[in-house]
Amino acid sequence: MRSGTGAESPADDSSSPIVDLLAVFVVVFVLQQVAALLSVGLMAGLFVLAPPLSTNPWTVVTSVYAHGGVGHLVSNSLALIVFGWPVARATTRLRFHAFFAVTGAIAGVAQILLTNVAALVTPVPATGGVLGASGAVFALLGYLIASNRLSASLASFVEVPAWLSGLVFLGLAIAVTMATASPGVALLAHFTGLLLGLAAGRARVLNVGSPSRSGSARL
């Protein structure tokens, strides 16, 4: 990965936001266990995003970094490394953290709001609470899919209407979400995160540097 002269420089491995996030995951998980020892309600109030969203608004953010168990923590950490590292090397530390937090928060809120609305008119149960980095990790996967060099090359050779790109992204998001479905998984959060990542990747919002002979940051 390279960056143009005078542009923002992508983070190197020594300052990788991936390492930052893994450390935050562990610290937050320890805090969850301490809070749970004192009171399960305290832990939930601090780290579980639940309706009504206005009751504990900070959980819109804290829930993104919290996990429901060691297995949940490990699986999301591994996925973060696989999908996040290529993206992190093409952007800045600040942009990566902002993207992770925003997409994760939106994915969690979408899971709560959409399932609660659906529960009013369908047998689909409302979501009582959600936590975990999966929505943000799926956003990184979507970004990686839509912004890689092969996708960029195809887009430069084949002019695809915006509405068709939207349909393709929607279909891909549905397919990947259903392929990863299992009991207790926040499917709408995964779907929302992936869709956000695909749209952001198409726009290459995280890539830094401007095209020049010295090159630009690319996935």
From TrEMBL:
Compartmental location: Membrane
SUPFAM superfamilies: Rhomboid-like
GO MF terms held by the record: serine-type endopeptidase activity
Keywords for this protein: Membrane, Transmembrane, Transmembrane helix
Transmembrane regions: 21-49, 69-87, 99-120, 126-146, 158-179, 185-203
Chief place of localization: membrane
Organism expressing this protein natively: Haloterrigena salina JCM 13891
Protein name from the UniProt record: Rhomboid family protein
Pfam families associated with the record: Rhomboid
Entry's Gene Ontology cellular component terms: membrane
InterPro entries, sorted: Peptidase_S54_rhomboid_dom (IPR022764), Rhomboid-like_sf (IPR035952)
Membrane topology: Multi-pass membrane protein
Domain Peptidase S54 rhomboid per the UniProt entry, residue ranges: 56-202
Lineage: superkingdom: Archaea
